[in-house]
From TrEMBL, chain A:
Membrane-crossing residue ranges in chain numbering: 12-31, 37-56, 63-82, 88-108, 120-139, 151-172, 201-222, 242-267, 274-292
Pfam families (UniProt xref): BPD_transp_2
Gene Ontology molecular-function annotations: branched-chain amino acid transmembrane transporter activity
Membrane-topology descriptor: Multi-pass membrane protein
Main location: membrane
Any GO CC annotation of this UniProt entry: plasma membrane
Keyword Transmembrane helix: yes
Keyword Transmembrane on entry: yes
Keywords, in A-Z order: Cell membrane, Membrane, Transmembrane, Transmembrane helix
Subcellular location as annotated: Cell membrane
Organism of provenance: Tetragenococcus osmophilus
Name this protein carries in UniProt: Branched-chain amino acid ABC transporter permease
Automatic annotation (TrEMBL), chain B:
PROSITE patterns: PROKAR_LIPOPROTEIN
Protein known as: Branched-chain amino acid ABC transporter substrate-binding protein
Gene name linked to the record: livJ_3
Naturally occurring in which organism (per UniProt): Tetragenococcus osmophilus
A matching Pfam family: Peripla_BP_6
Signal among keywords: yes
TrEMBL record, chain C:
Topological relation to the membrane, as annotated: Multi-pass membrane protein
Ranges annotated as spanning the membrane: 12-32, 61-83, 95-115, 142-159, 188-211, 231-255, 267-285
Secretion signal span: none
Pfam families: BPD_transp_2
Protein name: Branched-chain amino acid ABC transporter permease
Gene: livH_2
Organism: Tetragenococcus osmophilus
Amino acid sequence: MKLFSKLNISWLIITLLGFFAIDSLVYFGIIDPYYEITLVNILINMILAIGLNLIVGYSGQLSLGHAGFMAIGAYATGILTIENQSMGAFLISLVVGSLFAGIVALIVGIPTLRLKGDYLAVATLGFSEIIRILILNMTELTNGAAGLSGIPFFADWQTAFALALICIILVANYTRSSIGRATIAIREDEVAAESVGVNTFYYKLIAFIIGAVTASVAGSIHASYFGVINPSQFTFDKSIDVLIMVVFGGIGSLTGSVVAAVALGILNMYLQPFGALRVIIYSLVLILIMIFKPTGLFGTKEISLAKIFHKNSKPISEGKEG
Amino acid sequence: MKMKKWFFGVMSFSTLFITACSSGRGGEEGNSAEEDEAINIGSMFELTGSASAYGNTQANAVQMAADEINEDGGIDGQEINIEEYDTQSDEAEASSVATRLSTRDNAVAMIGPALTGPMQAAIPNADEAQVPLISPSATDDDVLTDEDGGVHPYAYRTGFTNSFQGGALATFANDDLDASKAVILGDNSSDYATGLTEEFTEAFDGEIVSVENFSEGQNDFNAELTNIEQTDFDVIFVPGYYEEGGPIINQAREMGIDEPILGPDGFGNDVIYDLASEENMDNIYHTSHFVLTSDDPDTQDFVSNYRENFDTDPDMFAGLAYDTVYLVKQAIEETGSTNSADINAGLENIEDFAGITGTFSFDEMHDPIKTVSIIEVQEGEEVGTSEVEPDIE
Amino acid sequence: MEAFIQQLINGLSVGSVYALIALGYTMVYGIIKLINFAHGDIYMIGAFVSYFMFLNLKLNIFVTLALTMFVTAFLGVVIEKVAYKPLRNSPRITALITAIAMSYLLQNIMIYVVGPEARSFPQIVQNKTYTLGNISINQMEIWLLGTSLVLMVLLQLIVQKTKMGKAMRAVSIDAKAAELMGINPNTIISFTFLLGSALAGAGGLLVGMYYNTIDPMMGATPGLKAFVAAVFGGIGVIPGAMVGGLLIGIIEVMISAYGNSMIRDAVVYLILILILLIRPSGLLGKSNKEKV
């Protein structure tokens, strides 16, 4: 398959069109600062949801600890960019946060990924709480409960857009690679996958690490865009928020996660004037959607150009879902 | 294939970077209310989420103050319109709401949020839009300070700072209670508690014999109190809110600990008497912004009005938020302008604003210059107040 | 030594609150494999229902208890019928999200309706304190521990000895097969929710009386801890919930007493994870080999 295949070029054009569309809307003031915050929030949530979807949707492991990895990225960026206020430091902090989150995921994953179902869920919840409590107690570095403020603003919507795109490409390619297929096999039937020689543990671990790294990237953007982080932002509730997005969009559908992040972001914007009623409406909507669309908006389906051009593109190269 | 996809990724990434022109966060010259329209004031509080107990009373008080002002003919004939939003006790949401208020709703001033974190997140948006943002209850010392140690030009608060209050309480423990050994019982996941603990520790002349921590949502303090009971001390400092303070007092007194208990302004809600049960509210000292039973007619009006509207007694959070609305009113009246940048200048120069939580002006760091009054409670009754000048710095 | 015993008592009383809630969690989980996140909030509703009954109807404690249990049981069954039943054949995680949404809904409706601030619970029973040397224990602590023990035994009896219990176990193992044997799984599941929610209601009342404070968020932290406790003991196993709840309570208190209270929750989770690594199905859980 060629690099400049019809597919890749089409995706490139679509992405660039999207980018320039947003850019010009910002330029002409149609996207005002308020929409911009909403947009960045959506992009951050998109990265979080995609990463968690890889863990929950593709490898089938319920993780309730996504917020912990997000906290790692956020603090890496907070600490490093306050120390050295430059774009370079921000980029370095992205890498440092990702590496650190990856290593923690490795350390956490090796023992816990052997656990099954709800036991794994509680273990990941526990680890994320442990990370949070450590952050609370390392006051020298993290300023404890008060958190870090005055983090310089290096991330803007363009950064968030670019990073979200990279994360999507990374995860989408991963799920279509041979390792990715093996990972999906684990979700479908772990025992069967094992019996045909798939090292299930190894693939679960890789998915877990990639998920953690993307969460850390989201945390970095969050820290650098909002300028304020503290441990109370990264609680169990945050992990649940991300999980809701994943399930709402469709477990095992990246398109679903992207659409869910956008849809919930827009829903939130429209519900904002309702004040305290908002959360009530939000939970009702969520319950209704779960009841009437239990597999989420997209199930495991993806929107794919390959399907649209299916006459020209061989399914083998793009996968039947690609 | 993987390689190629990667290449595609890098390609698009670099394209984005090359073409990304900085659009930045644009700014205008603040907001103004049209002369024939209502003056929009933003109210952004923690109506839901972990801090909803403090956010709701403040939002209520803000609305009530606005209604009162409108009944009395508004500000120079113009009505006030309160645009109320929920920050969900969340930083990102606070930032979004502040932007919405200042760029969409034409708010000329914003009141809130209750917590330090959301306040910090909202301040850059207020600065950018040149709309003053006044938090009634964000207490952290550095909330209003930017990274270079200067003050954020559009951020204010009407409550005490941690160092001011922690210092006052320590001075009181030193001088009035003659305490030489103190224990501290607080929630180390709350910046309110950690900030107060730090300042108290610094200003207290005696020895801090032990520091016990509990976590958010806990209501059984027997383990910590059993520890405390075994130590030799003169005073317990509880840097927390009435929701924790009440049960702590209750359990401590039931256990037979009868040393004085010292609390911050967070104790300032009468529910604490029920939570601790009245006979246990003995030998308690806490700072306060205002006294419910004060003879001051404005305070009396406020208290009876609040009771009528919300069927419950107001607490100090409500008092602070209520004052903040009148503070904005005074700034508008003194400058004679409804432009948010002018109002900001008015706030900066405000002199001796007489509110129910005390008479104050802002210092150069936009913190109110107030005296701290410490209320003494014996046998379930407030028996006296003493004013303390904290010896900080 | 006296201090240690006192702390042990403190731990038991904290733990019995967790146990009380964990019992309901584990029972529902045992039957339909659903982590019913709204359980902690039903407990909160129980506290508020009894609060308003005490204030407005001024009934005696046992009548209030019975009525509270009735109301929460009814609520639990309605929630099950409306929100969980349609999802019985959906992915388990969908039901989990629905349960979480239900928990948000209950919390925020209460914040909206009664206000978010803490209220003091009326003191119906004079709380006596018994002391022996320097050790003291009060009546409510005994009540709490006693109630959770009695309920555990009662539940265990219902599940193991009654016909209903047999049906519950059958549904838990294979709902389809149970249906073929003439058991109506819907009735059994409703019964489970009825029982679990009634328990939560009773728990709410007792804890309200014990700590003398209630608020709409009161279910969140104990709910999460109880869930952890249930897993700790082996989720789905009734005595496991009891053991898990009490142990977590005791561990928490002992860390506060003899360790560093700043890292208390971290240590609790660390111990939990270690236990799970040694016994992957919790302390009393049976490890089921997955069927091929």
